[in-house]
Amino acid sequence: MYKKRFDNRKFDESRPIEATISVVENATGSAHFSLGNTKVIAAIEGPKTLHPRRIQDPERGLVRCTYDMMSFSVDDRKRPGPSRREIEIGLVMKNALQPFVLIKEFPKTVVDVYTEVYQADAGTRCASICAASLALADAGVPMRDLVASVSVGKVGDKIVLDLTKKEEDYEEGATDIPISMSGRTKEISHLQLDGCITLDEFKKALDVGEKGCQEIYELQKKVLKEKYGGV
Ligand code: ADP
User: How far does residue 174's CA lie from ligand 1's centre (Å)?
Assistant: First the structure.
């Protein structure tokens, strides 16, 4: 039985969330996003002409995501360079974000989204998606909504929001469900499930995840409003 969270949070409470935009001077747009000890920088390059020309689409642009976790971001030194996990997370990010980017407005081009995790304590794909969505908005890339992302799941017998690495590794069992959801329209563009969960528990987890995403969305809107006015 998981009676109390390791870090004393309520079961439906996320870790402290912080967001800042325009943190990388040479990028078209950028953001820093943290969920507790999970910290990410996202930077955008483009839209720029896609090369080679034969892969250009005359009707739409492309969103390309590169996810990286630095060697010192975890306790055991992580091998540098893109692993299968990092390549997969880049694709997960693209699938989570691209449905909300108005790619028909920049044909033949590519928007490169780079995310760098420099401190990891689980939920790095979610924090990367949140940072990337903010960075895209900061870059002025046309979008129909912002995307917020958080992990929900089951630790022992409890449904919890925003699992830490220690919770993911809980010895009596843990289920991790990263979810990405558009802020205004609440469309889910990404959901993964690692572990076991009943249908009733899954429905409860989705509700908790929606609440978590909405909290992040409010912060995303706030930081954009502070710099650019109405969002
Ligand atoms: P996410 O970070 O999105 O939850 P995973 O479930 O793959 O993705 O990873 C969970 C956590 O495990 C990471 O946030 C990080 O804290 C840790 N981790 C991932 N890869 C490594 C690695 N190669 N070495 C050490 N720790 C790692």
Answer: 14
**Alpha-carbon 176 to chain mean position:** 14
CA gap 155, 142 in Å, rounded: 38
- The class level of CATH for 17-222 reads alpha beta
Question: From ligand 1's centre to the CA of 122, what distance in Å?
Answer: 6
78 alpha carbon to ligand 1 midpoint, in Å? 9
The closest-lying atom of ligand 1 relative to the alpha carbon of residue 125 is 3
How many Å separate Cα 171 from the centre of its chain?
Answer: 26
- Ligand 1, atom 27, residue with closest C-alpha: 74
Per-residue pLDDT tens digits for 77-118: 888 888 999 999 999 999 999 999 999 999 999 999 999 999
The answer to whether residues 151 and 126 touch, using CB atoms and an 8 Å cutoff, is yes
Neighbours of 140 (CB within 10 A): 12
Going from the Cα of 85 to the center of ligand 1, the distance in angstroms, rounded, reads 9
Helix axes 199-228, 124-138, angle to 10 degrees: 30
* Whether the predicted model's global pTM rises above the 0.90 cut: yes
Bridging pattern class, strands 109-119 and 62-69 = parallel
d(CA 204, CA 214): 16
| Distinct helix (H) and strand (E) counts, the chain | 4, 9
Residues at CB less than 6 angstroms from ligand 1: 74, 76, 78, 85, 120-125, 165, 168
Phi, psi (rounded to 5 degrees) for 82: -75, 120
